[in-house]
Amino acid sequence: MVELSSLKGMYDRYPEERAAYRAVIDVVEETAREFGFREIDVPGVERTELYRVKSGDELVEQTYSFEDRGGREVTLVPEQTPTRARLVQQRKDLKTPIKWFDTSKRWRYEQVQKGRDREFFQTDIDVFGVESVEADAEVVACAARIFEKLGVDDQVRFLINDRDLLEALLETVDVVGEDAEAAMRVIDDREKLSCEEFLGRLREQGLSTADARDVEELTAVSGPIAETVDDLAERAPDDERVERAVERMTDLAAALETYGVADVCRLDLSIVRGLAYYTGLVFEAFDAGGELRALFGGGRYDDLVGLFGEQEVPAVGFAFGYSPTAKLLQQAGEWPAEALSTDVYVLPVSDSVRETALSFAADLRETGLVVETDLTGRSVGGQFGYADGIGARRVIVVGENDLADDVVTVRDMDTGEEDLVPVDDVVGKLVADLG
Ligand code: HAM
After folding, report:
1. Quick check: 393 pLDDT over 70?
2. Mean of the pLDDT values across residues 393-402?
3. Atom of ligand 1 nearest to the CA of 285
4. Which atom in ligand 1 lies closest to the alpha carbon of residue 273?
5. Cα–chain center distance at 212
């Protein structure tokens, strides 16, 4: 016997559940299109070396990697950013800004838990070729618009940081070099740790108790971007690197203000992100209740394209994750109905009218409506039951007697009301009602 269940962390989504996911994906993609992002399509399997370059050890350890039948080391795509960098490097003729989106599956051999699956969808949205904060603000604005359209913008917080700013600030408290790298790795886990555990982990990494306390204090900083960055600038000693990072963050705050999304964003010095290729800005979205894993994550990765060839192209973007977002939408009552929907079911009462029924179905489909008709020779009652099960909004009952009078019966499945409609008017009437 074949084991019927799917592998752990992978999901069988039947049409009802898939319809709900599809509705959410449509909102995300439609928003990306509105901002001028263009859809791409890329492989789901890549050479393993693509990830060794810069994704970070944690990610490489979590890949589904194997040797293909030609003896090549290959990996199921765990994230799309390295693939995109490869595509940009490969083509020197692309006009900037290059703005891409795509929704597809990713695979990571993770510890399966709430919001962490082994096979999952991401929609990646990136801008290549723009160094300024305008691109940073545009991707954040696009993400904010997605949550607005999903009806949960008031329940989402965007936490923004700049690794340069954090590194420069760590330097001002004498946490530098390997200590700074070690500290950044621990900071990435800060939200999962108590204060004591956090300090303990920093000390384990070789930081002195005083340094650990400084890091703890610094990474507790979180607040509205413009004010928080002003505070930091005042507190920090004169330092060229801090000044540069502060200036960029101040510019970003102004750009976010212009896009009207500054209110959902906070500067939070504990956001570091695990992926090794980020060069400055990093950001993540969380539910306001703080219960769920990150809803999406992204940042600026100005060096990654350059690692794959001679062309240097700055980049910024994020990947939208569906598992935590689905939980948030469910809690907020904004998760789309997990139900089938059909515009019209055409019900032939007997075999003799099957051809006429098919011709109604064909005419209605031509108008773009979703139409089903009988494939099984069921009874009238059986067909009404089926029509109900597929969420049909109208049923056209095609019977010999009605046809003799050049009419059909149209039933509104919500109200149960029935109308006799002239055969020649039925398509026009249904399009007007349902279109
Ligand atoms: P990431 O933080 O690894 O970044 O993933 C982004 C989002 O995908 C997460 O916030 C989460 O919602 C979702 N996600 C990640 N892993 C899983 C999982 N195992 N199960 C379910 N959902 C998951 C990246 O992937 C970067 N490539 C994003 C990026 C694009 N940076 C720049 N451009």
Report:
1. yes
2. 97
3. 10
4. 2
5. 35
